[in-house]
Amino acid sequence: MKLDGYTRLAAVVANPIKHSISPFIHNRAFEATATNGVYVAWEIEAVDLAETVANIRRYQMFGINLSMPYKEQVIPYLDKLSDEARLIGAVNTVVNQDGTLIGYNTDGKGFFKSLPSFTISGKKMTILGAGGAAKSILAQAILDGVSQISVFVRSVSMEKTKPYLTKLQEQTGFKVHLCALEDVSELQSRIADSHLLVNATSVGMDGQSSPVPESINLPETLLVADIIYQPFETPFLKWARSQGNPAVNGLGMLLYQAAEAFQLWTGKEMPTEEIWQSLTEKYQ
């Protein structure tokens, strides 16, 4: 990697963020595409967010990525929002376009690009959870022409989830079905009628728990995805594979959302196959 007076900076901004593997991904991409750039991780306090965003212009940066807790907080400091960022209500990528700061959310696009030989257009999806990752997947699915979405959350989270889904329907005209995760018969019915089942909760990061009971039967052609990539195979994915279903973890989502951001910043395609090999060796 060459560093000189023309090197441009990109960063991921969050708290905490020192554990992030985004610098590994993007610096590999800068090197592989002969782009004079460097990517770092900035762990900042909330009071420093406005100044951090101002520095994108000040230092003529490519832009920044954002993770928790700043994906929503950054919006007032930006000049424009993309369609998906507006629908999601959160930004994970800021692009410096000649001094104009544009907010994007590449998480949903990254998720769907990570699914092998699958397009969501005209398909039915069941998703578990309604947090930030789920919102990005929901919004992108609607933009990409999904035919039906069923969202399952715990009963205690139903009231908290309704306002976002109502707002989403007002903006898109698309009705999302909200159901209680404890209603196993409804969960079975919706999964049986779906083409894609997604775990967008954190359940399974302990390597022991699963968000659904093992009594659920999966249709043969159902694709199962988990946004978690550590552990590499969650109990949820292991259960799906034991029924003979194709199953995908969240490492591809991480890579492809980064690839979308990289292209927005540089106009170049990230060499995802090469970097994927390095990632799987690192995490498998």
UniProtKB/TrEMBL annotation:
<comment type="subunit">
    <text>Homodimer.</text>
</comment>
<keyword id="KW-0521">NADP</keyword>
<dbReference type="GO" id="GO:0050661">
    <property type="term" value="F:NADP binding"/>
</dbReference>
<dbReference type="GO" id="GO:0009073">
    <property type="term" value="P:aromatic amino acid family biosynthetic process"/>
</dbReference>
<feature type="binding site">
    <location>
        <position position="107"/>
    </location>
    <ligand>
        <name>shikimate</name>
    </ligand>
</feature>
<dbReference type="InterPro" id="IPR036291">
    <property type="entry name" value="NAD(P)-bd_dom_sf"/>
</dbReference>
<dbReference type="GO" id="GO:0019632">
    <property type="term" value="P:shikimate metabolic process"/>
</dbReference>
<feature type="domain" description="Shikimate dehydrogenase substrate binding N-terminal">
    <location>
        <begin position="12"/>
        <end position="94"/>
    </location>
</feature>
<feature type="binding site">
    <location>
        <begin position="129"/>
        <end position="133"/>
    </location>
    <ligand>
        <name>NADP(+)</name>
    </ligand>
</feature>
<dbReference type="InterPro" id="IPR041121">
    <property type="entry name" value="SDH_C"/>
</dbReference>
<feature type="binding site">
    <location>
        <position position="227"/>
    </location>
    <ligand>
        <name>NADP(+)</name>
    </ligand>
</feature>
<feature type="binding site">
    <location>
        <position position="229"/>
    </location>
    <ligand>
        <name>shikimate</name>
    </ligand>
</feature>
<comment type="similarity">
    <text>Belongs to the shikimate dehydrogenase family.</text>
</comment>
<dbReference type="InterPro" id="IPR046346">
    <property type="entry name" value="Aminoacid_DH-like_N_sf"/>
</dbReference>
<feature type="binding site">
    <location>
        <position position="92"/>
    </location>
    <ligand>
        <name>shikimate</name>
    </ligand>
</feature>
<dbReference type="GO" id="GO:0008652">
    <property type="term" value="P:amino acid biosynthetic process"/>
</dbReference>
<feature type="binding site">
    <location>
        <begin position="20"/>
        <end position="22"/>
    </location>
    <ligand>
        <name>shikimate</name>
    </ligand>
</feature>
<dbReference type="GO" id="GO:0004764">
    <property type="term" value="F:shikimate 3-dehydrogenase (NADP+) activity"/>
</dbReference>
<feature type="active site" description="Proton acceptor">
    <location>
        <position position="71"/>
    </location>
</feature>
<dbReference type="InterPro" id="IPR013708">
    <property type="entry name" value="Shikimate_DH-bd_N"/>
</dbReference>
<comment type="function">
    <text>Involved in the biosynthesis of the chorismate, which leads to the biosynthesis of aromatic amino acids. Catalyzes the reversible NADPH linked reduction of 3-dehydroshikimate (DHSA) to yield shikimate (SA).</text>
</comment>
<dbReference type="InterPro" id="IPR022893">
    <property type="entry name" value="Shikimate_DH_fam"/>
</dbReference>
<feature type="binding site">
    <location>
        <position position="250"/>
    </location>
    <ligand>
        <name>NADP(+)</name>
    </ligand>
</feature>
<comment type="pathway">
    <text>Metabolic intermediate biosynthesis; chorismate biosynthesis; chorismate from D-erythrose 4-phosphate and phosphoenolpyruvate: step 4/7.</text>
</comment>
<feature type="binding site">
    <location>
        <position position="67"/>
    </location>
    <ligand>
        <name>shikimate</name>
    </ligand>
</feature>
<protein>
    <recommendedName>
        <fullName>Shikimate dehydrogenase (NADP(+))</fullName>
        <ecNumber>1.1.1.25</ecNumber>
    </recommendedName>
</protein>
<keyword id="KW-0028">Amino-acid biosynthesis</keyword>
<keyword id="KW-0560">Oxidoreductase</keyword>
<dbReference type="GO" id="GO:0009423">
    <property type="term" value="P:chorismate biosynthetic process"/>
</dbReference>
<feature type="domain" description="SDH C-terminal">
    <location>
        <begin position="250"/>
        <end position="279"/>
    </location>
</feature>
<dbReference type="Pfam" id="PF08501">
    <property type="entry name" value="Shikimate_dh_N"/>
</dbReference>
<dbReference type="InterPro" id="IPR011342">
    <property type="entry name" value="Shikimate_DH"/>
</dbReference>
<feature type="binding site">
    <location>
        <position position="83"/>
    </location>
    <ligand>
        <name>NADP(+)</name>
    </ligand>
</feature>
<keyword id="KW-0057">Aromatic amino acid biosynthesis</keyword>
<feature type="binding site">
    <location>
        <position position="257"/>
    </location>
    <ligand>
        <name>shikimate</name>
    </ligand>
</feature>
<dbReference type="Pfam" id="PF18317">
    <property type="entry name" value="SDH_C"/>
</dbReference>
